[in-house]
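Q: Can I see a sequence and its folded structure?
A: Here is a first one.
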Amino acid sequence: MRDCKEGDYVRCRRASSVELSVRKNFGVFLRRARTAAGLTLPALAVEAKLPKSVISTIENGKGNPSLITLHKLACALGVQIKISPNDQAY
């Protein structure tokens, strides 16, 4: 992680434990949804029109997907993703 400079907070701040937990939980959800749909990672990448590396990063709890990426994944998997600050389930 590079040194932070004033005005550069958003790009270089470290993720909190809550953020890390949300990312990990969503990654687990995504992998389960993908395997339940009978899709391999490359097949989901084709369906969602996303690079395999993006999906892999998310599934490993290291990604921070945009709303557009979430929408593409949900459509490809035929699921709805509910975003709620108090929910642990997706």
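Q: Show me another, different protein.
A: A second, unrelated one:
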Amino acid sequence: MSLKVAARANLIWAAAERWGAQLLAAAVFTVLARLLDKPVFGIVALANLYIGFVQIFVGQGIGVAIVQRKNLEASHLDTAFWINVGMAVALAGATIALRHPAGVLLGSDEVGPVLSVLAVSLPLWALTVVPSALLERELKFKVLATRSLTASAVGGVVGVTAAFLGLGVWSLVLQQLVGAALTLVLLWSTVQWRPRLRGSRKAFADLAPFSGSVMGNNVLWFVSQRVDQGVIGRGLGVEALGTYSLAMRVVTLGLDSISAPVTRVAMPLFSGIQDQSERLMRVFLRSTSLVCSVAFPAFLGLLLVAPDLIPLVFGSKWEAAIVPTQILCVLGCVRAVQTFVHPTMMALGRAGVYMSLFAVSAVASAAGCLLAAGHGVAAVAWAMVIAAAITGLANFMVLSRLLHFSPAALLQALSPIVAGCGVLALAVVGVDHTLSGHVHALVNVMIQIGVGGLVYAASMAFLARGLSAELWSTAKPLFMKSGPI
């Protein structure tokens, strides 16, 4: 099977998993946002901030190391499994014991009890690291897709039911725990591998250098991507964080739906051509263009319709999230351009280089958010945009040297997409100017989306016919029945 055929085949299932999960998450999140108050989302966002950081030390980058390693032995899997589980149990116990000081550190006493329950998710997640990495290494994205979708659906039903029963913050907690537990059960019912009660110093030594670099990258990634929430939660309160979390959630759902399927497929596929730098360069540039051809118009459209869309979907109580959502749409575009930087660096075995780049990102994000905190949520959002742009510039300067391409080549590849987005913006603004005040807001939004989509598609067919054809050939199997892949 050629690289292109393998990429498309696995992309279908990776996209099915991600899009299905995101559709479910969007539906569940919409219902929960209407049922629950802003502080509830702020409290859980702070708790997840802590859990997400601790989770980095549970996984230790071992899952990525398993996927990336060419020669994998049973001793590597056994050692990785027991290290992960042992670390998870220790950190879960420490979290429960230190829940009150952690809550004070995060700026809310209400976070402590939530942390003590969410700590259970750490060992649940640790038990899935190795089986999930094995399935990903073997490109079994269909299996991962069906299991993930099932767990997301059941967790969502539990969360919504709990919210209807008036459980408040615990509805979000139950949603996460049920989803994590079911994912664990479904993954282990799929893989044939079972751990043996043994460990190997040699296996640990084989995995440690790469996984350690990945873990370092993950720590810096966490700071660069999540420092905004910590600054807002501690400095502006849980209600402000709840508002910002909704805006970030909306944008993240869109970005994950577009980029997550392809990055998951990219890591093992790019690793297979890591010794062919010219081919990897071509694949990187084309893949980036394909992602941006979807992400740019999606985020531009969301930015333009947000004033009507946010109150329609989530209710008028969330109107304060409109401006942060619009600003974070710009962030979504900046991050979309960098979609394949991480899998390319990992495939090249340059985790150490990438860690240095993430240090730049972490410093820029932390400094920007701290300086902006006193000026409100919107200022913090702009700080994240500027930090992401600085990071992107540094990423492409380094990557252009590793893959021997000129940054001008990337700008040339993106220029027709930017032009098409300009035409889209003119069309959407024109529709809104014509219909606003004359039709219901929902009708206005739907017409704006429809006209904008058609105008953009027509523009791209004229400006970048080859790119449009490739995008359609990749996406076509997702919308039409076809034979077995």
